[in-house]
Amino acid sequence: MATDNDDVIDTLNDLIETSRDGEYGFRTSAEHAQSSELKTMLMRHAEECRSAAQELMALVRQLGGKAEESGSVSGALHRGWVSVRSALSGHTDQATLDECERGEDVAVASYRKALKQELPAAIRSVVERQAQGAQRNHDQIKALRDAIKKA
Fold first, then answer.
1. Which of 1, 43, 65, 107 is deepest in the core (most CB within 10 A)?
2. What is the pLDDT of residues 8-63, one digit of tens each?
3. How far apart (Å, rounded) are the C-alpha atoms in residues 83 and 29?
4. What CA–CA distances, in Å, run from 36 to 78, 84, 104?
5. How far apart are CA 9 and CA 11, in angstroms?
6. In terms of residue numbers, what domain contains 38?
7. What CATH number does the domain containing 26 carry?
8. Total number of domains constituting the chain
9. CA end-to-end distance (rounded Å), the chain
């Protein structure tokens, strides 16, 4: 397993950025959602992402590193795109879910990339659990989006 803490810290910081991006993206999307049920679900996902980031930040600190405090530049651009697209499409729940799914595609890919790295067993366990959560979020968003398309 990895003995170079710097590589592990870098991997965790990438995931912290991804989690922050998810938190901000879900919060922004919740603001644009029309349905109260969708707003509630998106806020729940935002909170899950916030908790994931906090858990990863604690791991980075345990390894003696400095944890990322914010999201990524690409995440900021994605959030901006969520706002623009929602404005152009009249803030429909369909458009909001399309953007959420796009964001979760990025999150799932980030976790897959992290799991290709050599990680200490305890950290790998956390990353695997969080990766499953990102996949569940993605699948739930996609299913809801598909259901709205059919309606």
1. 107
2. 999 999 999 999 989 988 998 898 888 999 999 999 999 999 999 999 999 999 99
3. 8
4. 23, 21, 21
5. 5
6. 5-150
7. 1.20.1260.10
8. 1
9. 49
